Amino acid sequence: MSQAPIPVTVLTGFLGAGKTTLLRHMLQAEHGLKLAVIENEFSETPIDGQLLGSEPVELLTLANGCVCCSIHVELEKALYLLLDKLDSGELAFERLVIECTGLADPAPVAQTFFAGDELCERYVLDGIITLVDAANAERHLQESIAQAQVGFADRILLSKTDLVEAPAVEALSQRLQRINRRAPIHIVEHGRIELAELLDIRGFNLNADIAPAPALRPLLPATSKDRIATLVLHSERPLDMQRLSAFMEDLLERHGNALLRYKGVLEVAGEPRRLVFQGVLRLYGFDWDAEWAEDEARRSVLVFIGDNLPEAEIRAGFAAVQA
Ligand SMILES: Nc1nc2c(ncn2[C@@H]2O[C@H](COP(=O)(O)OP(=O)(O)OP(=O)(O)O)[C@@H](O)[C@H]2O)c(=O)[nH]1
Q1: What is d(CA 111, CA 116) in angstroms, rounded to the nearest whole number?
Q2: Is the confidence metric ipTM above 0.85 for this complex?
Q3: b/e burial code for range 178-200 (CB count within 10 A of at least 16 → b)
Q4: Best of 10, 14, 20 for a ligand 1 pocket test (most atoms within 8 Å of beta carbon)
Q5: pLDDT, tens digit, for every residue of 260-301?
Q6: 3-state SS class at 196
Q7: How far is the CA of 15 from the centre of ligand 1 (A)?
Q8: Hydrolase: present as a keyword of the record (predicted)?
């Protein structure tokens, strides 16, 4: 059976950031999309449904055709169950949104879709959306997990901006942008946002879409340094393919677990096409993309969002890759 895979959006954000509020909006708005939402109560050790007084998986089809799925089992089981119900015609949905618990790192949820089995054929990870509570960000961002949630994001949504003054929102946006320079930041008011901003992001596709968000606006120097930060490398000179491979291999070997997200569009010496790559932790892919146009300024850009990356060492390693 060959069907288009179901796009999956992972929604994350620290405790009380407004995930449920946003999901409620997604599930109730008349957007004409058939969404299935997994509200997770899952944990590594499955909890006895009896104890919780509820079924391990509860499914509810809503008036607008969306499906709400509360689970108390491992995510994979719920994903297979949704497929079964879809295939048997018992349920209809064309997209899936998964809510992560506030204290969870979104990486294991994202990695579920890279596992290489049936799940990867039937589902495709579209993007990671991170909600940040503008009123409590200062406190939340002291936690490395809250910083990691921002680092993994393809889109950052600022909630509760109604509770803080504009300059504080601007300062927070700057800080978030230093942590993650790739993810555009949107304001979400009590869960209200155009779904088009959140869907079809194609954050994990191999493409040349890399423009770091701050290309749009300069960042002020940081007053304090966050643990998770973005490192952008540029080269105006073509890169040597062999040295590039060695550089990437070494980087992954030594810092793979600290590389939350990374993406690159590269000019390789003697090659008319651009090389694109992207990855999450140690999992990455690369491919040859379209040729550079005749009149186009050729330039390599790599963006790494990492946890305490040794910047000077990485910059020196990259400088040696130029042909
Ligand atoms: N003022 C204000 N309150 C908001 C906004 N968004 C959400 N809230 C409130 O913040 C509280 C927490 O929101 P939830 O949606 O439950 O947050 P959550 O991320 O699902 O919380 P956990 O599941 O506990 O991690 C609720 O009382 C919401 O009504 C907003 O934009 N402005």
Answers
A1: 10
A2: yes
A3: bbbbbbbbeebeebebebeebbe
A4: 20
A5: 999 999 999 999 999 999 999 998 989 999 999 989 889 999
A6: helix
A7: 9
A8: yes
Distance of alpha carbon 195 from alpha carbon 28, whole angstroms: 12
Return the axis-axis angle of helices 311-319 and 241-255, rounded to nearest 10°.
160
Nearest atom in ligand 1 to the alpha carbon of residue 21 is 15
**CA distance to 174, 250, 303, per residue, from 167 (Å):** 11, 42, 28
CA of 20 to the centre of ligand 1 (A): 7
DSSP state of 14: S
Q: Which domains does the chain have, with CATH numbers?
A: 6-205 (3.40.50.300), 228-319 (3.30.1220.10)
**Alpha-carbon distance values, 79 to 27, 71, 241, 275, 310 (Å):** 18, 10, 40, 33, 38
Residue appearing with tokens 């499914």: 59
Nearest alpha-carbon partner for 249 in 277, 289, 291, 290: 277
The dihedral of CA 84, 87, 88, 89: what is its sign?
positive
| Residue located nearest, by CA, to atom 2 of ligand 1 | 160
How far apart are the CA of 19 and the centre of ligand 1, in A? 7
pLDDT, one tens digit per residue, over 163-187 is 999 999 999 999 999 999 999 999 9
287: phi then psi, degrees, rounded to nearest 5: -160, 165
User: H-helix or E-strand containing 243?
Assistant: helix 241-255
Atom of ligand 1 nearest to the CA of 17: 19
Label residues 120-148 b or e (16+ Cβ within 10 Å = b).
Answer: eebbbbbbbbbbbbbbbbeebbeeeebbb
